[in-house]
């Protein structure tokens, strides 16, 4: 008999957690009976769900955990004002109590063999999350699992309330060794619960879509690309400053930014202020970012903190060298794989390294040739999930 699994997430908007979830569901379908519980049935990835997945929806009130203020206004004014009140409340007392109370509006579900929270707990001052609370308090399951796709040590979640929450799970899955190490630095007493389970990747899809009308860049410049949600932790202001320094040094460079988010307007204004708007292109959200990555010269991710970005493996698979700031998983994903360069997590070193790399097109080509000869598979991810589903040790 197939095991019954239920996954809980806030929405299916474009983002690393959502894309990781889609890849996971695609690989588990057929092996298990899968249900997905969404707080808000919204997002660009909604149409990509495997048809065999049963989708359940939280009560309308819990939409405030899966939608932003901008999405709620003016369609749901009541929820907009409620969310506004709770946002202020979280800034005063933290989000632990509001999330716990909101979770009880979800009716009890189950029984299931395994209940899985796809979202980590966030820093106390913002109204975000809720998946951990719903899995722990509102779903009947033999085993309860929390997935962590963030650097808990540096994203603001290292609090006693979050420690207590995670301590109630049977297992905690981190997506990389670096992510695990940072989690254990924050919560060392939870060591026995934590295991590393890599993300699945849709390598067939990446290859297919990268060849669908790929962008052809003029070869008289070095073409740098970032594919990311345009939010504060990605540090893209620093990338723009590094591009400005390259231009000032006479390096012919273009910078392609693929993605959308709350910082987009500010970043566009900053590019104008720095005088680099002519060589910076904002493409917004793209259903097929791989066509932009296919022929680029360098992938740049100047984040303040990261867990294990899916886009690192996607870039490597496409033969695209990477320059990234020092975050939790860069050693295993970039340095040990000889996939590019890692700089210190400062604006000064981002500027220095980007100028150095872009001044050496021969080195970039050698790195691309190396990556193009590598093989990437989902073998380890499949092995770990098989162990997990069959109650085996990693």
Low-confidence segments = none
What is the CATH third-level topology name of the largest domain? Answer: Rossmann fold
Number of strands: 13
The biggest sheet, with number of strands, parallel, antiparallel or mixed sense and barrel status, is: 7 strands, parallel
Number of helices: 16
Global shape: globular
Helix content estimate: 25-40%
Overall tally of domains: 2
Helix-strand topology string: EHEEHHHEHEHEHEHEHEHEHEHEHEHHH
Distance between the termini: 23 Å
Which structural category fits the helices and strands? alpha/beta
Average per-residue pLDDT, rounded, comes to 95
Determine the CATH superfamily of the largest domain.
Answer: Glycogen Phosphorylase B
What is the level-2 CATH architecture name of the largest domain?
Answer: 3-Layer(aba) Sandwich
CATH domain class name of the largest domain:
Alpha Beta
**Whole-angstrom Rg:** 21 Å
Task: List strands and helices in order, with pairings.
Layout: E1 4-9, H1 16-28, E2 33-38, E3 54-57, H2 69-72, H3 77-93, H4 96-103, E4 109-117, H5 131-138, E5 139-148, H6 160-166, E6 171-174, H7 177-186, E7 194-196, H8 203-210, E8 222-227, H9 236-248, E9 253-258, H10 264-274, E10 280-284, H11 290-293, E11 298-301, H12 310-317, E12 322-325, H13 330-335, E13 340-343, H14 347-358, H15 361-372, H16 379-389
Helix pairs in contact: 9-10, 9-14
